[in-house]
User: What shape does this take?
Amino acid sequence: MSNFFNTKLEYLRGVGVQRAQLLGKELGLFTYGDLIQRYPFRYLDRTQFYNIVDLHDDMSFVQVKGILRGREVIGEGPKKRLVAKVGDASGELEVVWFKGVNYLEKVIKNHQEYIVFGKPTMFNGRPQMAHPELEEVTEQKAGQSFLQPVYNTSEKLKNYHRIDSKAIMRMVSDLLKIALPQVTETLSPALIQQYGLMDKAAALQQIHFPQNQDLLDRARFRLKFEELFYVQLKLLRQKDQRKVTLAGQVFNEVPTLVHFYKDIMPFDLTGAQKRVIHEIYKDFLAGKQMNRLLQGDVGSGKTIVAFISMLMAADNGAQSCLMAPTEILADQHYQGLKVYANQLGINLGKLTGSTPTRVRRELHEQLREGTMQMLVGTHALLEDVVQFRNLGLTIMDEQHRFGVAQRSKLWQKNPYVIPHVLVMTATPIPRTLAMTLYGDLDVSVIDELPAGRKPIVTVHRYDANRLKVFQFVRDQVALGRQVYIVYPLIEESETLDYKDLTDGYESVSRAFPEMQISIVHGRMSAEQKDFEMARFVNKETQIMVATTVIEVGVNVPNASVMIIESAERFGLSQLHQLRGRVGRGADQSYCVLMTGYKLSKDSRTRLETMVRTNNGFEIADIDLKLRGPGDLMGTQQSGVLDLLIADLAKDGRILTESRAAAQAILNDDPDLARPEHGNIRRHIESLPATAVNWSRIS
Ligand code: ADP
Ligand code: MG
Assistant: This one.
């Protein structure tokens, strides 16, 4: 779009410097372009009038037309309210106001016809509306019908500066008048024709002020299509470019790997593990840099795949590192892999925030000299002082904890040949989201659990039944099992959660005086955590009381019971992750979701889903539908949140179509050099450099 859209909002009629500043600060609106792209988040249906008799609880905002048949002020002080009756031919509606009573009493008139707009609720079988909008029916308004846009604003703007949704609506309306002639088409004529798209200017007009539902739908489709098209175009170009340009080390020797397979590995790989290893191996042979996402449900055995990949690197004289998001997890990987490494004569090191300086120096030196082949650690291994002789492979476990910037930091650890990258995640990502989040990565999936695993039995229990649950814990411990009891951790209120946890710990200690109990939470030092964790791993303690710090990756096969307190406070993916801490051994495992009686509809859906299925992909899909992609792990750093209008949870079909369209265009004209792609090329060139980065890494 032209420079016009970079004009500062203060120049818009009636806005001025002060309001422009507020809009910028409170809503992130600075320019004409920002405002015109701040689409309404919903619309009020002012196209039709309902009969009062048809109103019911499930309706959202609706309007009726009727005569005011009487009003009175009832109650005193804070209970004071104005109650009025509005009637149409079908029935009567009671309307109530608790605020502005004195003012309203003066202005509303008996026997006047009004349009009443609000959300109906039923009370003793009779319809009511609290705080509806009221508008006199006048000659000129009689025939009007429209969808009225509603814009997000902030409490501060609304209450202190009178910038409410309607004020924004007026600004947008003023802006559209001068802006529409400046709008240029951003999609090619062929695309517009093929997908029957509305043109850009019309879409902008209709998205703000739709004449009817049909035009609104078409405007939405057009804008969503465009948005997803450009996201996919960018990702596909990155992927293609990298495939062409970036060389990767070839790992074709596998002597140690064969020895490991034959003599050391304690189990047979699952078919899915074998397939994924083969995909990775093919990448290693290709001479191009690998960028692969490995998705596998909790317990599907990703670690061994990581280790085998690292062995391939070592067999070819390259170093590798495995980076975990927490110290506990890094340590666990280290302990687990160390056993194999020792048998194979491989030098494997561990580097975390709590590694003592002396050890650190030694590590640094071995890495620089190349005498250490494998390194496991936390983000500490990103530090600049950590240099490798020849880093050939970097693996990130539980990727959602790492930012994109960290990803690229690892790339820089080898100045000669960029290391292969394997990103592992147990958070199953629905296909639509994966396409956008990781559109530039190749994807492998482990969709099979090792044989002999019994599906975890999940139940929902109310707090009132705690005694029974505790008895169950006692029985399981008597059978030699171990138990997790997890308390929620909400970042906004760490103090409160800490109290929940310590209260919980005390009551658990009282309930099980005969048992040893570990406790792990975010306020403990790394050493304390490790100490407590180690006691649990070594079976010195039977119960582990913890916050969600144990969520990721921790592996204690003998722990077979997971009790989640206040389960309604956890997101679905998080519940699934936590449940994945059990079911890792041969014993039947259980997950008990504890809640009070009072539950929201969404909470119920989450709990029912957990009870019904163990399938991470199904859970991820439901989670995406419940929460939208904004809250899903991994989306924060992805730019997916920057989507203006498309919704990855709902727009899967448009995403697929726009991706296919982008791919077809790139196949045909990789540099977008043809005249018929002029609109697309110009649009990309007009975007700020940060928005579309054509260089090789996101
Ligand atoms: P995740 O994918 O959640 O990271 P892990 O790699 O921690 O899973 O594996 C979970 C457990 O399953 C570990 O104890 C691991 O040793 C074991 N395991 C992995 N692959 C197999 C297999 N093919 N057969 C049996 N056990 C396996
Ligand atoms: Mg893992």
About this structure: The pocket of magnesium ion (ligand 2) is lined by residues 302-303, 397, 553 (CB under 6 Å). The longest helix spans residues 213-245. Residues 630-641, 690-698 have pLDDT under 50 and may be disordered.
